[in-house]
Each structure stands twice: as C-alpha cells, then as structure tokens.
From TrEMBL:
<keyword id="KW-0472">Membrane</keyword>
<keyword id="KW-0813">Transport</keyword>
<dbReference type="GO" id="GO:0009055">
    <property type="term" value="F:electron transfer activity"/>
</dbReference>
<keyword id="KW-0408">Iron</keyword>
<feature type="transmembrane region" description="Helical">
    <location>
        <begin position="184"/>
        <end position="202"/>
    </location>
</feature>
<keyword id="KW-1003">Cell membrane</keyword>
<feature type="transmembrane region" description="Helical">
    <location>
        <begin position="21"/>
        <end position="41"/>
    </location>
</feature>
<keyword id="KW-0349">Heme</keyword>
<dbReference type="GO" id="GO:0005886">
    <property type="term" value="C:plasma membrane"/>
</dbReference>
<feature type="transmembrane region" description="Helical">
    <location>
        <begin position="153"/>
        <end position="172"/>
    </location>
</feature>
<feature type="transmembrane region" description="Helical">
    <location>
        <begin position="125"/>
        <end position="147"/>
    </location>
</feature>
<keyword id="KW-0812">Transmembrane</keyword>
<feature type="transmembrane region" description="Helical">
    <location>
        <begin position="56"/>
        <end position="78"/>
    </location>
</feature>
<dbReference type="GO" id="GO:0005506">
    <property type="term" value="F:iron ion binding"/>
</dbReference>
<dbReference type="InterPro" id="IPR051542">
    <property type="entry name" value="Hydrogenase_cytochrome"/>
</dbReference>
<dbReference type="GO" id="GO:0022904">
    <property type="term" value="P:respiratory electron transport chain"/>
</dbReference>
<dbReference type="InterPro" id="IPR011577">
    <property type="entry name" value="Cyt_b561_bac/Ni-Hgenase"/>
</dbReference>
C-alpha cells in the first residue's frame, strides 16, 4: 500500500465475539495441554523432603491436562457450531480451498511469506486463503489429539465422555503406540504457534490493516482509493 496515495479507510467488523472468545480459550487450553503433556511425557525426578502423601504435584499436572482437555473439546464444538451460524468470515466454507481465486491467493501469500516480496494487495478481508488452509489442518490435528487423548483417558476414567472415545484406541497396536502418536501431535502445535504468531505480526506490517489487534477488538480496516 503506497503511503503517498490518498485512501479512505473503512473499518470492517470481521471477528465476532464468539470467534474471539474461541480463539483465546483455544490458545490458553492448547498452551496448558502442551506444557502439562510435555511434563507427563518427560517427568522430572524432583526431590523433596515432604511426606509422600503431601506431594501431589504430578496429580495436579494431570488434573490440569484433563481439565484443559474438556475445555479444548467443548470450545471446538462451539466453534464448529459457529461455523454454521456466524458471519461470512467465520463460515465453514472459508476454510475449504475450492475456488481458483483461493488457490491464486495461496500462491500470492506464499510468495509474500517465504520471499518477503511485494505481491500486491491481499483480497481477502477475513483469513487469507493460505491461513484458512492451515487452520483447517489445525482443526484436523485437534480432532486427532481429542480422539487419541480421550482414548488414552478412557481406561482410567468411569465418566461418560472418555467412554465415547474408547473405540479409537483399537486402531493402535498398543497403548504405547497410542500414547506415542498423541505425543507426536504436540510438536505440530509447537510449530504452528511459532509460525502463526510470527505471520500474524508480519501481516500486520505488510498489510497495514490492523491484523494483529483484530483478534482483540474484532475490527480490520480496508483501503479504498479516494475519487
Ligand atoms: C496458542 C496460541 C494460538 C493458537 C492455537 C491460535 C489459533 C488460531 C486459530 C485457530 C485461528 C483461526 C480463528 C477462527 O477462524 O476461529 C487464529 C487466527 C488468528 N490469530 Fe491466533 N492463535 C494463537 C495465538 C495468537 C496470538 C498470540 C495472536 C496475537 C495477537 C493471534 C492472533 C490471531 C489473529 C489476528 C488471527 C486472525 C488472522 C487471520 O486473519 O488469519 N493468535 N489463531
Ligand atoms: C490438544 C492438545 C494436547 C496435547 C498437546 C497433549 C499432549 C500430551 C502429551 C505430550 C502427553 C504425554 C504422552 C507421553 O506419555 O509421552 C499426553 C498425555 C496424555 N494426554 Fe494429552 N494432549 C492433548 C490433548 C489431550 C486431550 C484432549 C486429552 C483427553 C482427555 C488428553 C489426554 C491425555 C492422557 C490421558 C494422557 C496420559 C496421561 C497419563 O498417563 O498420566 N490429552 N498428552
């Protein structure tokens, strides 16, 4: 966007309250799940002079993992519902790259992101086509973590919800393999978060449309040439 030209800036209300609430609950739950999951997979041998029955830190770590797991599950259910009733930027079809224009935008954004090259204005006002595709992959990964996580949880819980997922464990050779793949998925989120936060900040700069703050206030800004 050339600074010298005169533009009219038009605010567009892009992210409704439910999308923003989903976003931040999802971010919080994911960080809690990854941190506690990492500790469950690599428990440090802590030495303490407490009586054994007074030290319950690992139980607390697991409690946070399982509590966040329910939050993560219901938050996704809520987002899927919103994909059918929310505004055009939150709709399910924005996440499916099916049109030629979407694929062209995927190429355009890849060039901007990988080569830091100027490629003209990005047409999408909501998620750009590449971002949408990545969020779809994140959704798939989240379903995978929910299925493997609750399948791991089922034998140690008498609650109703984990029981619904017990069948998924049957696809794995042993509980160890199930646990292994549940663990592997965590590294995908670590990669996603680093790239996502960087790209949101980078697009805030290249687009100059208020991307970074849009997930807080809901607004983005589009430029229209004057006259
Ligand atoms: C664990 C950390 C995070 C996760 C898992 C995450 C995940 C997501 C997801 C799933 C979306 C799509 C939202 C939807 O359509 O419902 C999204 C969009 C977005 N996120 Fe995050 N996010 C994280 C952290 C952050 C942070 C720290 C920021 C900084 C402000 C941020 C800013 C945004 C913005 C601005 C968008 C919309 C960007 C676009 O138009 O594509 N996110 N994020
Ligand atoms: C989506 C994000 C999630 C991440 C990043 C994550 C990560 C992890 C990791 C790394 C482990 C350790 C695996 C190992 O032993 O090496 C673990 C264990 C486990 N996770 Fe998750 N998890 C997630 C979601 C869930 C969900 C939704 C559930 C559902 C209840 C769940 C239930 C479990 C259970 C039952 C264990 C084994 C705990 C134990 O034996 O003490 N996780 N998780």
């Amino acid at each position: 966007m050339a600074n010298q030209e005169v533009h009219i800036v038009k605010p567009v209300y892009v992210w409704e309250v439910p999308v923003r609430i989903f976003h931040w609950i999802n971010a919080l739950a994911l960080v809690a799940l990854a941190a506690t999951g990492y500790l469950i997979g690599n428990p440090p041998a802590l030495l303490t002079n407490l009586e054994a029955y007074d030290g319950y830190w690992f139980g607390t770590v697991r409690f946070i993992h399982f509590g966040s797991a329910y939050l993560f599950l219901f938050n996704w259910v809520y987002r899927v519902y919103w994909a059918f009733v929310g505004n055009q930027y939150a709709r399910w079809n924005t996440f499916l790259p099916v049109t030629k224009a979407q694929w062209q935008e995927v190429g355009q954004v890849l060039v901007i992101d990988l080569f830091m090259a100027k490629q003209g204005e990005i047409k999408s006002v909501g998620h750009n086509a590449l971002a949408s595709m990545i969020y779809l992959v994140l959704f798939g990964a989240s379903i995978f973590s929910i299925l493997t996580g609750f399948a791991l949880y089922a034998p140690m819980s008498s609650s109703l919800i984990p029981g619904f997922f017990a069948w998924f464990g049957g696809f794995f050779e042993s509980e160890m393999t199930l646990r292994y793949w549940h663990h592997v998925a965590m590294w995908f989120y670590a990669l996603f978060v680093i790239v996502h936060v960087y790209l949101v900040a980078y697009h805030d700069y290249v687009e100059a449309r208020g991307v970074l703050s849009s997930m807080v206030g809901g607004w983005k800004f589009i430029f229209q040439k004057k006259g």
